[in-house]
Design goal:
Layout (H helix, E strand, L loop, with lengths): L4 E3 L6 H10 L2 E3 L5 E8 L2 E6 L7 E4 H10 L5 H5 L7 H10 L3 E3 L4
Antiparallel strand pairs: 1-6, 2-3, 3-4, 4-5
Helix pairs in contact: 2-4
């Protein structure tokens, strides 16, 4: 059974999330992939996978934040409605790394 995610506590404000995300040097996606943060352009975080093709990728941090605020269930399908295709694991990983989501205890 897959682990479920929940918000870690009171809502984090957008400005706080942007600061947290832009200060990251590395983060792990919801899968096993480790990403290195290259920088940011406005509210887009630019990163590459540490292993593999190292292709530059980006994610709109405001869209990640919107998913965080509006969702109560953080499944890949639901987060995927907010971010570019195939970035749902990245979005989950960012929210976990920024301590805005935590895994729920097993039932």
């Amino acid at each position: 059974m897959a682990k479920s995610l929940r918000k870690s506590g009171p809502l984090v404000q957008l400005d706080d999330f942007l600061i947290r995300a832009k200060e990251l040097e590395y983060f792990q996606g919801a899968g096993e992939t480790l990403y290195e943060v290259i920088g940011s352009e406005e509210d887009e975080l630019i990163f590459v996978a540490v292993k593999g093709k190292r292709k530059l990728q980006g994610i709109d941090l405001r869209e990640v934040y919107n998913a965080y605020v509006e969702l109560n269930e953080f499944t890949s399908n639901k987060i995927g409605r907010y971010v570019a295709p195939r970035n749902f694991a990245v979005a989950k990983g960012l929210l976990l790394q920024c301590k805005m989501l935590v895994y729920s205890p097993a039932q």
